Amino acid sequence: MPGKIWFVGAGPGDPDLITVKGRTLIEQAGAILYAGSLVDQAATRYAPAGCEIRDSKDMTLEEMVAWLLDQASRNATVIRLQTGDPGLYGALIEMTRPLTAAGVEWAVVPGVSSAMASMAAAGETLTLPEVTQTVILTRTAGRTPMPEGEDLALLASHHCTLCIYLSITLLHEVQSALRAAGWQEDAPILVVQKASWPGQEKIVRGTLADIKQKCQAEKIGSQAMIVASPTLGAANWESLVRSKLYDPEFTHRFRKATVA
Ligand code: SAH
Question: Is the CB of residue 90 below 6 angstroms from any atom belonging to ligand 1?
Answer without folding.
Answer: yes
